[in-house]
C-alpha cells in the first residue's frame, strides 16, 4: 500500500470532476487514515473548505501568483540585468518536486501538464483521471498525445472516454482502466409542489457543451406541437451574465418565458431535482455526469443523446430511459411526450434507475479507483 499521494484538481468548484475526487479522498481517509494526502488546486472554488478538511496538506495555486513588478523594480531589473528570482508558484512546484510522493494523481487532463512537471525526474507513478471527451481535450490540451509516454496509467470515466482516448489520442488500451463516476444524494422526501404540472428538468452550467440551447428547442417543439399539455421546463445550474442575456432573448422571441425557467445555481439543488418527473441530459459531450447518477438515485427517468455521454451505456443496458439520435430534438421531445402520456412508465423507468444507480456510490466505486492505483504501483 502506498503512503503518500498528491492529488491535483483543475479547480475546487462544485462541479463533477472535483466532486468525484472529493468523494474518493473522503473514502480514502476514512478507510486508510494514515495515508498522507496532499491536494493542489489550480483554481479556487466552493469546495475549497471541503478539500482542506480531508487533506493533510492543501495548496491553492492562486495564492502563489507573483504580483506584477512595480515601475521601480522594472527599471532596476533593466539597469542591473539582475537574474529574476523564482516566482512563488515556481517555488511551490520545486517544493512538491522535492517531496517523495508515491503517486501523483492528475484529476482531469487540465491538471496533467503541471503533474508532469512536478513528476519530472522523480520515481512517482503518474495517474491521470480523464473526465473529458474529444472537444474539450482538443480545446484545453490539444497536445495530450505528447504527455502520454509520461503517464503510467489513465482512468477513464466511461467506456466512451476510454474509446475516445484510444481512437482520438492513440493511448494504448492497456494503459487505460474504466471506472465509472460516483455520487451521493439525499433521499427523495420532499413533497411535489405542483402535482398537476409535468416537470422536465436539466442541470449544469448553461453552456454549449451542456446543451442549454437544445433544452430550449425541445421546449419550443413541445409547445408548438402539444400546446395543451401542462409541461414546464426547469434548468438548475450556473448561468453567466452574458449567457443569461442570450437565453432570455431566446425565450422572449419564442414566447417561452412562462414555460421555461433557468433558476441558476442552488445551494441545495436536490430540492429541485425531487420536483422533476423526467431528466433531460442535453449535453453534446459529457463523460459520465454526476447529475445523472443523482437523478437515477432519485428514481428519475433519463433521456440523452447517443454518442454524447457515458450515461448512455447504462440507460441502453437497463432501460431506465431513452437514448435518442445525436442532437435530434424532435425525438427527444417525443420521448417527453411519451412519458407525459404514460405516467406508469415514469414510475417503472424511475424504479429501474433507482436500483441501478445505487451502485454508483463512493463506497462501491472508490475501492475500484484504489485498486487501479495499487496495481499501477505494482
Structure at a glance:
With 378 residues, the protein is of the alpha/beta class. The chain contains 15 helices and 13 strands. The termini are close together.
Which stretches are poorly predicted, pLDDT < 50 over at least 5 residues?
none
Give the biggest sheet: 7 strands, parallel
- CATH class group of the largest domain: Alpha Beta
**What's the helix-strand series?**
EHEHEHHEHEHEHEEHEHEHEHEHEHHH
CATH architecture of the largest domain: 3-Layer(aba) Sandwich
CATH H-level superfamily of the largest domain: Glycogen Phosphorylase B
How would you sum up the global shape? globular
Across the major sheet, the strand order is 3-2-1-4-5-6-7
Mean pLDDT across the residues is: 93
| Class based on secondary structure composition and strand pairing | alpha/beta
Task: Kindly give the count of domains.
Answer: 2
Radius of gyration: 23 Å
Number of H- or I-type helical stretches: 15
The count of β-strands is: 13
Strand fraction band?
Answer: 15-25%
- CATH topology label of the largest domain: Rossmann fold
Q: State the end-to-end distance.
A: 9 Å
Give the proportion of residues in helices: 40-55%
Amino acid at each position: 500500500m502506498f503512503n503518500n499521494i498528491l492529488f491535483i484538481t483543475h479547480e475546487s468548484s462544485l462541479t463533477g470532476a472535483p466532486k468525484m475526487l472529493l468523494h474518493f479522498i473522503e473514502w480514502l481517509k476514512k478507510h486508510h487514515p494514515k495515508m498522507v494526502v496532499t491536494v493542489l488546486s489550480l483554481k479556487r472554488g466552493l469546495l475549497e473548505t471541503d478539500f482542506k478538511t480531508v487533506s493533510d496538506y492543501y495548496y491553492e495555486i492562486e495564492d502563489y501568483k507573483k504580483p506584477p513588478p512595480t515601475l521601480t523594480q522594472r527599471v532596476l531589473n533593466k539597469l542591473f540585468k539582475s537574474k529574476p528570482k523564482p516566482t512563488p508558484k515556481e517555488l511551490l512546484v520545486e517544493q512538491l518536486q522535492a517531496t517523495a510522493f508515491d503517486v501523483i494523481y492528475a484529476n482531469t487532463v487540465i491538471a496533467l501538464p503541471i503533474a508532469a512537471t512536478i513528476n519530472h525526474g522523480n520515481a512517482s507513478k503518474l495517474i491521470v483521471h480523464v473526465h473529458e471527451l474529444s472537444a474539450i481535450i482538443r480545446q484545453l490540451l490539444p497536445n495530450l498525445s505528447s504527455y502520454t509516454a509520461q503517464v503510467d496509467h489513465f482512468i477513464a470515466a466511461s467506456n466512451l472516454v476510454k474509446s475516445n482516448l484510444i481512437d482520438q489520442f492513440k493511448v494504448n488500451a492497456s494503459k487505460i482502466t474504466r471506472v465509472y463516476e460516483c455520487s451521493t444524494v439525499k433521499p427523495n422526501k420532499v413533497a411535489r409542489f405542483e402535482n398537476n404540472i409535468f416537470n422536465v428538468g436539466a442541470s449544469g452550467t448553461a453552456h454549449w457543451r451542456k446543451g442549454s440551447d437544445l433544452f430550449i428547442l425541445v421546449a419550443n417543439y413541445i409547445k408548438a406541437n402539444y400546446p395543451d399539455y401542462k409541461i414546464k421546463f426547469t434548468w438548475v445550474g450556473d448561468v453567466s451574465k452574458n449567457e443569461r442575456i442570450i437565453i432570455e432573448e431566446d425565450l422572449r422571441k419564442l414566447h417561452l418565458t412562462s414555460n421555461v425557467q433557468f433558476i441558476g445555481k442552488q445551494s441545495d439543488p436536490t430540492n429541485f431535482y425531487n420536483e422533476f418527473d423526467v431528466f433531460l441530459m442535453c449535453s453534446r459531450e459529457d463523460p459520465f455526469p454526476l447529475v445523472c447518477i443523482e437523478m437515477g438515485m432519485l428514481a428519475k427517468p433519463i433521456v440523452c443523446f447517443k454518442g454524447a455521454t457515458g450515461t448512455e451505456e447504462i440507460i441502453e443496458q437497463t432501460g431506465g430511459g431513452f437514448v435518442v439520435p445525436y442532437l435530434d430534438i424532435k425525438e427527444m421531445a417525443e420521448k417527453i411526450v411519451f412519458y407525459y402520456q404514460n405516467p406508469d412508465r415514469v414510475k417503472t423507468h424511475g424504479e429501474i434507475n433507482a436500483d441501478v444507480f445505487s451502485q454508483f456510490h463512493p463506497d462501491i466505486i472508490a475501492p475500484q479507483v484504489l485498486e487501479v492505483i495499487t496495481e499501477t504501483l505494482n
